[in-house]
């Protein structure tokens, strides 16, 4: 995981701190759902994000490789189930990304006033 | 779907809005509010005959009127285990349902709050039972509201506030505020049963249980419509 997932520096432009791993629609979605759900099943993610299993697996590998999520495989009866949990690094990365997005929006709103047009 | 990172300054607003939408959907899918309300309504209804039958009443004539002393032994014996069982059942259902939907549950703080409030009301009732027979007191109105707040029906409402916060469930919050007003005021819709000491609390308990029951049915129907 890059060091970019730490607390954003309020002085720096928010775009500079963006982490390419997290700053991606699907991966941000996975982290958001895993954060909100505490623990989420692969199938739920696939349905909510409207992805194929292969596509979701690729994104999961990126997040798992970066240490942002933990993947636990098991069985319920005969049915295989894969559960995804956010790691503390994943939680920090999600918080930082959301914070940067908010900063970016507020910066754009500050600049984009009628006087500037 | 794209695997490319979004342009950094690009659509931050859309990303945030999507993330909020996903979080909202997860919270909605984790809810089994109707189960909690129906379990609590059931516990309230079952408690009514136990309270009635288990009440110890001693009346004595004083002049033209009679003075009665009472102790709600049935309620004291019934409610602590009933509430503990109810919170355990609710937590179990939440975990099972969330798991079947592919999610984790966020019910633990609610169950812990419910259990803590149950302990609090049990201690308060036992202390009152030991102290007040020898030290009769006339309580002001605010003390009676507090008494109702730490009674089982009040603690049910306080714990539901915690559940509403956990679920960020505005509908449950509004329902709970209404329930607490009915339980604490108390609002009995003019229904009184003053024929004997045993029946004085029956109308309020029936009303509390009915509010919970109707709430449970309402949340179940709303959930069904969402699906």
Helix and strand arrangement:
The complex is a heterodimer of chains A (117) and B (227).
Chain A: H1 25-37, E1 40-41, H2 42-49, H3 53-65, E2 69-76, E3 79-86, H4 88-111
Antiparallel strand pairs in A: 1-3, 2-3
Chain B: H1 12-30, H2 33-53, E1 55-62, E2 65-72, H3 73-100, H4 108-131, H5 141-149, H6 152-167, H7 170-184, H8 202-226
Antiparallel strand pairs in B: 1-2
Helix pairs in contact in B: 2-3, 2-8, 3-4, 4-6, 6-7, 7-8
Q: Could you walk me through the main structural features you see in this protein, from its secondary elements to its overall organization?
A:
- The complex is a heterodimer of chains A (117) and B (227).
- Chain A is α+β, with helices and mostly antiparallel strands and 117 residues long.
- Helix content of chain A is 50%, strand content 15%.
- Chain A is built from four helices and three strands, in the order αβααββα.
- Chain A has a three-stranded antiparallel β-sheet with strand order 1-3-2.
- In chain A, β2 and β3 form a beta hairpin.
- Chain A is elongated and about 55 Å long.
- Chain A starts with 24 loop residues before the first helix and ends in a 6-residue tail after the last helix.
- In chain A, 35% of the residues are buried.
- Chain B is mainly alpha-helical.
- Chain B has one domain.
- Chain B is 69% helix and 7% strand.
- Chain B has eight helices and two strands.
- In chain B, strands 1-2 form a two-stranded antiparallel ribbon.
- In chain B, α2 runs antiparallel to α8.
- The longest helix of chain B is centred in the middle third of the chain and has 28 residues.
- Chain B is elongated, with a radius of gyration of 22 Å.
- The two termini of chain B are 26 Å apart.
- The mean pLDDT of chain B is 89.
- At the A-B interface, α1, β1, α2, α3 and α4 of A face α1 of B.
- Chain B: This is DUF998 domain-containing protein.
- Chain B: Keywords: Membrane, Transmembrane, Transmembrane helix.
- Chain B: It comes from Paractinoplanes rhizophilus.
């Amino acid at each position: 995981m890059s060091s970019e997932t730490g607390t954003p520096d309020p002085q720096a432009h928010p775009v500079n701190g963006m982490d390419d791993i997290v700053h991606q629609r699907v991966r941000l979605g996975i982290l958001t759902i895993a954060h909100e759900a505490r623990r989420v099943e692969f199938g739920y993610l696939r349905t909510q994000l409207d992805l194929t299993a292969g596509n979701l697996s690729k994104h999961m590998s990126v997040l798992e490789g970066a240490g942002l999520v933990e993947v636990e495989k098991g069985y319920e009866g005969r049915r295989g189930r894969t559960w995804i949990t956010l790691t503390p690094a994943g939680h920090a990365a999600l918080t930082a990304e959301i914070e940067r997005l908010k900063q970016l929006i507020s910066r754009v709103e500050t600049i984009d006033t009628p006087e500037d047009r | 779907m794209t695997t490319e990172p979004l342009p950094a300054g690009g659509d931050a607003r859309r990303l945030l809005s999507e993330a909020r939408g996903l979080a909202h959907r997860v919270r909605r899918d984790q809810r089994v509010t109707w189960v909690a309300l129906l379990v609590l309504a059931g516990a309230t209804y079952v408690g009514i005959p136990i309270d009635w039958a288990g009440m110890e009443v001693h009346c004595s004539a004083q002049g033209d009127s009679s003075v009665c002393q009472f102790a709600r032994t049935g309620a004291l014996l019934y409610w602590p285990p009933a509430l503990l069982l109810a919170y355990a059942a609710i937590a179990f259902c939440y975990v099972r349902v969330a798991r079947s939907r592919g999610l984790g549950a966020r019910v633990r703080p609610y169950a812990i709050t419910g259990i803590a409030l149950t302990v609090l009301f049990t201690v308060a009732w036992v202390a009152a039972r030991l102290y007040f027979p020898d030290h009769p007191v006339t309580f002001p109105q605010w003390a009676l509201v507090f008494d109702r707040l730490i009674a089982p029906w009040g603690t049910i409402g306080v714990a539901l506030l915690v559940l509403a916060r956990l679920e960020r469930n505005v509908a449950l919050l509004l329902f709970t505020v209404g329930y607490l007003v009915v339980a604490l005021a108390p609002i009995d819709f003019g229904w009184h049963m003053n024929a004997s000491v045993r029946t004085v609390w029956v109308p309020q308990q029936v009303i509390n249980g009915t509010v919970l029951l109707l709430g449970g049915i309402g949340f179940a129907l709303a959930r069904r419509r969402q699906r």
